[in-house]
Amino acid sequence: MQFMAGRYGADQLSRFMLGAVIVCLVLNIFTRWQLLYLLSLVVLGVCYFRMFSRNYAKRSEENRRYLEATQKLRGWFTKRKYRIEQSKEYHIYKCPSCGQKIRIPRGKGKICITCPKCKHEFEKKS
Description:
- The structure is a single chain.
- The protein is α+β, with helices and mostly antiparallel strands.
- The chain folds into two domains: 12-69; 89-125.
- It has four helices and four strands; from the N terminus they run ααααββββ.
- A two-stranded antiparallel sheet has the order 1-2. A two-stranded antiparallel ribbon has the order 3-4.
- A hairpin with a 6-residue loop joins β3 and β4 (121-125).
- It is elongated.
């Protein structure tokens, strides 16, 4: 613990880099491409350099740029995860008039739904 005191440590970019190293090493096992092995060693070296660095400002700026670049992709996966979790308890319907998504609890039978956006009424089975 004393060794890591004052050092940057792991962040989201470091975790992504370690995941990329693992993927490259697994692919190297099956393909025997030495380029993948060398690439994984270089990325691992950069990852450890970042973790042991004492330059907080530069490492946090790198992580911020990584998070900005991957924001849309991470948001897409977060939405899909939320939708899967919600599908256990709710049906999600689109209003036929305006396209607004409406969440309806499961197991209520056939119900009349009023869209909160355009006030259009339609029937669906929950």
